[in-house]
Write a structure and sequence with these properties.
The protein is mainly alpha-helical. The chain has helices at 11-37, 47-56, 62-71. The longest helix is centred in the first third of the chain and has 27 residues, at 11-37. It starts with 10 loop residues before the first helix and ends with a helix.
Amino acid sequence: MARKRWSELDPRLRQGILLGGAFEAGLKLAALIDLAQRPRSDIRGSKAAWAAALTLVNSGGVVPIVYLLRGRRIR
């Protein structure tokens, strides 16, 4: 399968890729802001480990969703 350049991709596919990237970036930003503002006692696990995972792992949005659903202690 030959690799295509960005300009050779279907415009709908390019738009989907951009929307997916923007969605993941928004989730990561929301999770990082929440992590920074939340006290250490309200986090399950290490804040440093969550921050590293959120910034370094290209997860398609999975890591931010896991943090927002399971990494926080809701009081």
